Amino acid sequence: MPVPSVRRAAGLFAGLALGLAVLTGCSSQGASTDCGLDACTVTFERGVDASATILGVEAKLVGAEGDQVTVEVAGEQLTLTTGQQAAEAGGFAVTLDSVTDQQVKIRVSRNPGS
């Protein structure tokens, strides 16, 4: 009967490893992140050199003017406006959630077809 215990332990270990990978998979400077398995919301502070590493790629705030924002995700620059459909960059869908005088918030998610 030790086989179910081994399976249970292996499943527990795999779950812990995945949870740890999700928690340690993000880093940022001048930004905060809120990540799940396939998507992250990144809130950049304006007026600083803001970037975050999420889902294995770097996201950077390049510039913002009015409701138009330029970001770099996975090495590709995108210009986004609030309410626009998602733009593609390196196998990720990127949308602009909001822009204020202090912050820019984007959502980066894995494209299921990539």
- The overall pLDDT average reads 82
How many DSSP H or I helices?
A: 1
Low-confidence stretches: 12-24
Strand content: over 45%
The structure class reads alpha+beta
What is the oligomer described by this structure? single chain
Q: What's the structural domain tally? A: 1
Share of helical residues: 10-25%
Model description:
The protein is α+β, with helices and mostly antiparallel strands. It has one domain (2-110). It contains one helix and ten strands; from the N terminus they run αββββββββββ. The strands form two sheets. It has a five-stranded antiparallel beta sheet with strand order 1-4-5-6-7, with no helix packed on it. A five-stranded antiparallel beta sheet has the order 2-3-10-9-8, with no helix packed on it. The longest helix is centred in the N-terminal third of the chain and has 23 residues, at 2-24. It is globular and about 35 Å long.
